Amino acid sequence: MSPHLFFFRALALAVTLAVFAGCPTLRPPCSASTCSGCCTDQGQCLAGSGQTTCGRGGTACKVCSLTESCVATTGACAPSSAGGGSALAGGAAGSGVGGGAGGGLAPGGGAAGGGMAGGQSSSDDVEVTCTQRWYTESDAGAVPCNFGSSAPQAVVLGDAGVTTFTPTVRPDGSFTLANVPRGLFFLRIGTAWYGTRERQLSLDYETLGRVDTALAGANTRLVLSAFNLVSWDEQAHFANLFSPGAGVAVEAFDQRLRDTPFDGDTEYDFTLPYDVLSQQLFVPLIDGARGDVTYLTQMSFDAASGEYRTLAAASSSTLTVTSMQLSSASFAMSSPPAAMTPLSIDQASFDAFAADLTPGTPSVGVEFAAGPRAVHERTSDGLAFVWGFFPSSVSTPPNPVSYPNPFPSTWGTSATVQVGNSVARQHPSAQQPRRYLSGQLQVLPLQSLASPVVATLSPPTSPQLNGAPLSGNHTGVGLRPSISFAAPRVGQPRRYQLRVEQLTASSGQTVARTAATFTLPPTETTLTLPPGVLVSGQIYVFSLSAVSNPGNLQVDVFDNRLPYATATVVSGLVRP
Predict the structure, then answer these.
(1) Nearest-angstrom CA–CA distance, 563 and 350
(2) What is the pLDDT of residue 552?
(3) 3-class SS of residue 53
């Protein structure tokens, strides 16, 4: 599933949390399978390239020191003199749609072991390429990847211990890992480990926007004067800002503002601290003179039906945000035209593997996203949130669905469908749990909805932690527990993914940071965690997923072509 370019998510709307506490969020939980940027403690998926929100691949956002810069390609904090990677917002910071593969290099966690064949003696070189490509409606430039201080490595874990191979990255972003033993090894970038047996690898990835965008300096402000708003409802309405040319997507930006419309307002001047957005969410400057078109949308959430809809929208082709100045633009809002599509979910196909899911509250959710490509080919193509259906309990989505679409008819639309169980995991010191999805999540071009959406992949079967069922609580597992599982009942995975999250309590909420993320080839069904991933006295949750799409994920690490699917099971609380 695709990593969208949502720099701020509207998941924490007061009405959602107050009325449906404990129900699935508007987007699936922030993780390596749903976010190619970094995850905040509140579960928001951010771009992962800001000075105070640095990270890739669904890792926890980290704060770089005053002497460091966030490397955009790797999400690592590097000494400022080492260069900061590309300064483009975008990557594909997904919010809700899986993969973690569509926008940037995705570090995710600790080291990986297990599944090594004994007696490996022959050696060979591994050749790796890495190019970052920008796009809008067309090709918008490319540059070599800049890894900063996060040097890529090959890691082999054998009986004698860990062997590391470190290359020198060439100016074109490529590198050679010399004399790596044949067989399973792990390509490490920052804290991400990708298991493969291949000798030719690609880390190429795409980023929406222009290659030459820049970030805002101090005291940059933007006033969006909106009139003809639908009568504002403080509890149900929120506003979004999109500009595909600049790679800008800021959802529910009004939730970040001190002053917001009152109930009944039909006109309002939204004053955005653009420098803060640029610093924290890596939002670049918009330049109308370079062809950037800006879209302002007003959306609502219907608590009774669980439906999110676009109420009003407007665009501007002249807006230019000037660094360190006050910029402004007017938006004459109007009701967008309606589009219609069949929407049918073959529930029986999902029920066929219900016994393989982690027990929880049954849930279903659907989301439509639009982007500047005519037909969505990759999960990263969905820029702008258009429509969503996330009810508080299982119910059937409308069929057909009529959804307001304010974006150009030349844009394509993708659909994300999630069916499964909402699983609660709570830190003992917290009052509120963290929610996980155990089930299938898939994204596909909207035209594929002409037939019922059928489950294409089920989660790994018989998952165990140190020989005990994964879904239970585990105490005293040690610092190097072993994971084992069998192939899914439905579908053919292209790889498996294990995410290890450390839980803590903050302001009564259960929050998580990524301790490790591992990927394995589909032939590997065991994994022994190496030293340094788990810490004594801490509490963890493991999420184990099967991942499938048309790409060869063992060769093209960040290939996120559609249709894309993940299917996940979740552990209980794990204590070393």
Answers:
(1) 17
(2) 87
(3) coil
